[in-house]
Specification:
Order of helices and strands: EHEHEEEHHHHHHEEEEEEEEEHHH
Number of strands: 14
Distance between the termini: 53 Å
Strand content: 25-35%
Helix content: 25-40%
Radius of gyration: 19 Å
Strand order of the largest sheet: 4-5-10-6-7
Structural class: alpha+beta
Bound molecules: flavin-adenine dinucleotide
Oligomer: single chain
Number of helices: 11
């Protein structure tokens, strides 16, 4: 393990100031389940680690029916999965967050870290995208916001500039008859990285017979998690039917650009994209149909 200094920041300003002083050598730590592994393997270098778990806003988990969810970037997954309100209002987010690692990892790992690590296969990102989640970023110029679908720019890269860090995520309140779901394929039952992940959200009309709107996002099939815009737009105004769902899955599949690696071939990933999008849509529709 390389040597580095560690500090636990108490405020947003302190983090911004430390990151601005030596952007390349300073790294933010939320849970450390990616960062510590990467430092040990020499995949990242750091002279100073700034722990943000002590910053109140990075640790807040607050739901307001008018504002939606404010999810601090450093809130550990086990806290989110144990929150009755998040389970009730955002089961599609829980689908994804509960998959991250096992019990020990859940105790430390955060959604903010999952997003900032910018892995194409990160489980929380497609789920955040279909929920229209927005990143709240603090930096030398104050705060700015960015939609989650625009946050990752390449594998391991994101839009954060020198001096900036992710404070929290804002997830809008679900509209009436909204449902979302996320699922992934892995070759074993747990503790593996997605071969393909798929998230979907839908808003249905009063009769639950027509799509008002939809969003579909895929993981592990492109350099960054992918919002399949055309597939979601195709569903708007269409009847809820097996044929329409299959066509949306085909359009999303066409948008995927997978590679072959040790986890699976490009052909297998293409095939899985359509299967998982169809199943994620069915899950989202089932939840939206139950919503009063
Ligand atoms: C055994 C094991 C199993 C795993 N299983 C899964 C899995 O099933 N699915 C999955 O998606 N991932 C998995 N992971 C990866 C990892 O646990 C997740 O990506 C986790 O959510 C990362 O969160 P963290 O808080 O630990 O991030 P950290 O390790 O603290 O940070 C990750 C990266 O983001 C940066 N960062 C962290 N917080 C901020 C911030 N607030 N602002 C700016 N930059 C920040 C760090 O500098 C670092 O580069 C697994 C890891 C292990 C070790």
């Amino acid at each position: 393990m390389q040597e580095f200094s560690y500090t636990k920041a108490k405020s947003e300003e302190e983090v911004v100031s430390l990151l601005s002083s030596d952007g390349d050598g300073v790294r933010v730590l939320s849970g450390g389940t990616d960062l510590i592994v990467q430092l040990r393997e020499g995949r990242r270098r750091a002279s100073l680690i700034v722990d943000v778990k002590g910053i109140p806003e990075a640790n807040a988990l607050v739901y307001d029916p008018a504002e939606g969810l404010r999810l601090g970037a450093a809130v550990a997954c086990h806290r989110i999965c144990g929150d009755a309100t998040v389970n009730q209002v955002y089961p599609g987010l829980i689908d994804a967050i509960s998959l991250i690692g096992g019990t020990a990892i859940q105790g430390r790992a955060s959604v903010g870290g999952n997003l900032c690590n910018a892995s194409p296969a990160a489980d929380s990102i497609p789920a955040l995208i279909v929920h229209r989640a927005v990143c709240i970023i603090a930096g030398p110029g104050g705060r700015r916001e960015a939609p989650v679908e625009a946050f990752c720019t390449a594998p391991g890269q994101n839009v954060l500039q020198r001096g900036e860090f992710l404070v929290a995520l804002r997830v809008p309140p679900p509209p009436p008859r909204f449902g979302a779901g996320y699922l992934r394929f892995i070759p074993r039952n747990e503790m593996d990285i997605a071969v393909v992940g798929a998230g979907a959200s839908v808003v249905l009309d009063q009769d639950r017979a027509t799509f008002v709107s939809a969003r579909i996002a895929l993981g592990a099939v492109a350099p960054t998690p992918l919002l399949a815009t055309e597939a979601g737009e195709y569903l708007a105004g269409k009847p809820v039917s097996a044929e329409v769902i299959a066509e949306a899955a085909r359009i999303a599949q066409a948008a995927s650009r997978p590679i072959s690696d040790m986890r699976g071939t490009a052909a297998q990933r293409k095939h899985l994209s359509a299967v998982l999008v169809r199943r994620a849509l069915e899950k989202a529709i089932e939840r939206a149909s139950r919503d009063e």
